[in-house]
Q: What sequence folds into this?
């Protein structure tokens, strides 16, 4: 039997509904104290560092890791007066165009196609290394299957050996990308080019598990990446791309998967870009990065925080000289992250800067999410990758210097 409300009783019921809705919204909305607790838990923020953050200073820290092969860096800056920011403006604030370390790059189709890799080429140093690769001893990260193929299918004395090796290398990269789109991290297999084979699936899962803030603010984002491609999250933007990097040592090619997600709470949009580097020919074994704009409603104001977090793994840090290399990587990484956050905060605080940058992106890259990925992948991968390349170089050089003579 239906129940009807009239007069004062109807007003009381309506008021109760409004209060209940507000309580439910407040209960589901992350609070500033939760952020501060997470900073203390994850990055061991001190009271002095929290105070510096409250004053608007950029705070960047190394994060202790359980594995000696891992490096983790976390940075944050608070801005009290940011205007409304779209995902596009947030992405563009981290623009890295013009970096001399970046070479060729490309976006994968869905599903990946051979034409996606038409501009991917190898350098002389790559051919020299592929020629002598063997299981357990190769400078290029590969599975045992691909090491055997390069040894058996390429006639390294033939006049066209470079063309043949390039075709086979593109086929390998395409297979890695295709398998990843079908099975996600479970497809990554094992690198067999070193003394101790590396389980890449386990490495990726361990790094992703430790990434901070995602569960508090980016509801469902970690689960989406863990379960990819089976995971579902409304409003997600997902793309995969490849990049070639040459920073003066040995060149490297990386494959990365990036997802963007906006979480609107009470009209304050928090933006997240989560990136997984799932393959690299050299130096870096696995990496996950989070870039976020957190907007936290507090009474009648909104607190804004720009965040960058990266966790990366490399066997270059596991040797006798790993501690020295780690210190060099962490110091340089902190400087790079500080610069990224400084630049992003300045751009987001200025509508004029946002407009000017948006025009530059459209003119130089064609605009849109795809162009951002192609121009800004350095944000999550290459900046740290360069450091691991330096570490690996130092370790190799050091090992040669410490070998007994004769």
A:
């Amino acid at each position: 039997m239906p129940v009807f409300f009239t007069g004062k009783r109807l007003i009381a019921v309506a008021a109760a509904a409004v209060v209940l809705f507000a309580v439910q919204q407040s209960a589901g909305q992350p609070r500033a104290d939760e952020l501060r607790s997470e900073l203390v838990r994850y990055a061991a923020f001190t009271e002095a560092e929290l105070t510096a953050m409250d004053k608007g200073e950029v705070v960047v820290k190394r994060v202790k890791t359980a594995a000696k092969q891992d490096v983790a860096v976390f940075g944050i800056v608070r801005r009290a007066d940011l205007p409304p920011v779209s995902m596009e403006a947030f992405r563009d604030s981290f623009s890295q165009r013009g970096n001399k370390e970046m070479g060729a790059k490309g976006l994968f189709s869905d599903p990946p196609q051979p034409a996606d890799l038409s501009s991917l080429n190898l350098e002389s140093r790559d051919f020299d290394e592929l020629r002598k690769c063997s299981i357990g001893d190769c400078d290029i990260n590969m599975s045992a299957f691909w090491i055997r193929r390069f040894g058996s299918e390429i006639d390294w004395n033939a006049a066209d050996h470079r063309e043949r090796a390039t075709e086979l290398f593109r086929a390998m990269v395409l297979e890695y990308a295709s398998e990843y789109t079908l099975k996600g991290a479970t497809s990554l297999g094992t690198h067999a080019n070193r003394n101790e084979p590396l389980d890449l699936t386990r490495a990726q899962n361990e790094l992703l598990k430790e990434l901070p803030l995602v569960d508090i603010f980016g509801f469902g984002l970690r689960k989406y990446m863990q379960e990819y491609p089976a995971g579902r999250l409304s409003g997600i933007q997902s793309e995969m791309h490849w990049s070639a990097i040459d920073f003066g040592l040995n060149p490297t090619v990386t494959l990365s998967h990036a997802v963007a997600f906006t979480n609107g709470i009470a009209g304050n949009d928090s933006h997240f870009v989560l990136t997984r580097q799932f393959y690299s020919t050299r130096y870096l074994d696995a990496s996950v990065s989070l870039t976020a704009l957190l907007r936290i409603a507090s009474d009648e104001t909104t607190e804004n925080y720009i965040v960058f977090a990266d966790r990366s793994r490399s066997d270059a840090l596991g040797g006798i000289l790993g501690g020295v290399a780690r210190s060099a990587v962490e110091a340089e990484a902190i400087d790079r992250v500080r610069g990224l956050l400084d630049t992003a905060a300045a751009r987001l605080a200025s509508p004029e800067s946002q407009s000017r940058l948006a025009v530059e992106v459209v003119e130089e890259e064609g605009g849109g999410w795809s162009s951002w990925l192609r121009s800004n992948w350095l944000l999550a991968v290459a900046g740290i990758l360069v450091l691991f390349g330096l570490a690996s170089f130092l370790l190799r050089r050091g090992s040669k210097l410490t070998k007994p003579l004769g």
